[in-house]
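User: Okay, second chain of the day. Same drill as before: sequence in, structure tokens out.
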Amino acid sequence: MAKTSEMRLIDLMVLKQDISNVLLYLGKSGNFQFQSSLGQKNESAKSESRENDIYKRLEQARSFLRIDDSGLSIKDAELPTEEDFSAAEGFLQSLADLNKRDSEALDNCKRAEEAFKEASSFSNLKQSYSQLEHLSFLNLRVGKIDPSVLDELKFAVGGRAIIVPLGEDKSRVLAASSKKGRFALDTELQRYGFVPMEIPKDFKGIPDDVLVSLKAQKEAAQKAVQELAHEKHSFTESHKDKLLRLLASFSLGSQLRDTESLLESTQLVYRLTGWVPNADCMEMMKELGALTQDRISIRQYKPEEVPGVLAGHEKVPVKLTHGKFVSAFQRMIFSYGSPLYGTIDPTPFVAFFFTLLFGIMFGDAGQGLVFFLLGILMAKNVVKLGGWNKFAPIFIGIGTASMIMGLLTGEFFANESLLEPFERFVTGLFGEPRNQILPMMPQSNPESIKRMFMFFGFSIAVGFVINSTGIIINIVNSFLQRKYGKALFGKSGLAGAIFFWYVVLLAIRVAALGHSVALYDWIVIGVSLFFCAFGEPFIRLAEGERPVIENGLFAMVIEAVVELLETVITYLSNSISFLRVGAFALAHAVLGFIILTMTEMVGGVGGIAVTVLGNAIVVVLEGMIVAIQAIRLQYYEFFSKFFNETGSEFAPYKFEYKKAGANN
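Assistant: Same drill. Structure tokens below.
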């Protein structure tokens, strides 16, 4: 059985002149994890480097120019050179000039538009304002108001005053009332947000030639803004590639300088301590030696030689190494928890069991073909679904499993007649030809009912294999960790395995061979249950922990009774839980039958639409439900057997493009 990747702790002493090249190599190789997280050190130790300053300004420039940086990678980037610093400064200066002219043009345009708007508001005032204001019977007010409340204002003042809109947008008004009613008018104007305007005494309105001049100024300012917008667009297009290249380079440099500032160091030497997969250790040491011309000190330790690991304070990081197909299932493992270092890697089992369960529950050759082709297109990056593309092997796997199950059940896009020639040919090789190798649609005849019960029995048998694999992994892991008590006793140890396997064997003997339960059967079951129920004290005894009975005899008996009930209920529920596999397989067949029946009822073009829509719904919705059920069976029935304690996932030091200001 494959175990987690073997790790080594390496201690590096690097001269100051070589630290940048060493960190660059480690970050790009992606195989070195610092022993203690740099984030746990004093963040105030970070220095504001030249690279950091330039990078932040370049990020602001990218944001100003609205250049998309999604997908920008620094995998192939190099540290910025002096030429890059000069190029970045020149670019930023050019952009600053453009930005300054853009701001000035926008401000000028705004002023021109406001001036023209103000002037237009008074273009219909032909009499001198001073003449109107000195009328003995007239009280005048000129100012700004929200056009949306103009009608309400007119209604409020009624016949006590006259409200005259000035300008086309009605945002300025002239209000006139009798001298006697000026206080009432002022009250209403104030209530509706009226803002008075200072008007020169001899003001008579705006001459037409002035309006024409102001309009020309406004249009000229708007044209200038448009020209600068075009210039900004041209600048963006011509400098886009250059900016993204500089961003990648200075992002890399910024992260590297931040790391440098957090390392243990003297004036001349830096110290780096971290975990490396043993398979890469020798090659890494050779590369580092060549990179520094052997100006580096490297010491290597096995995990059992590290004091923190021996004391139990530090967990050795866990790395899982697989091919493309199995590695696609690693996220499923780590989303539940990391295996302990040095234990069995469960990923190959998860890959096989998940694919098997999905195929059984989702048996249709046509619908499986959709998943298969989607996986191929995702693997080739023809179809891009963001972070989902890394799961392309899973889609290929479940598609293949569904197609195989579909060939057995004779279903192709819910149609059971298209594959009949193939089904009859295969079944004819072993006897009388049949339309389906494995008919799934329930029928009322005894043969169909018998076949259905056999299929449910097959589902439980699959569950037995998965549960047993989980128990075996737990037993082997316990022996590998020298926890012999846990390996032998308890419901997930050898005692629980003997109880589970013997009860299943006994059930087969009674059901298939007609045997009766004998005394020795009860003895085997009783003894195995005894060591399951009193597993805790036996574990403490085997592993040398004292006292053996930790909380007294009465508490031990109560715990044993609870453990006994839990052992029986757990194994029973874990087995019955796999009946859902058969239930979902039957439900899938029924859904296919419904789609086929509706297609035949509608017929013609409508029937084709029903087929397409029905299969699309099944692929998307039922595909999600079946996937969730397969994951659930892995988590609760399989992982629960051996995931008693989780380890620490290997998180190597590597460079990734991040927004300016994000934590590195």
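The chain has 23 helices and eleven strands.

User: Thanks, on to the next one.
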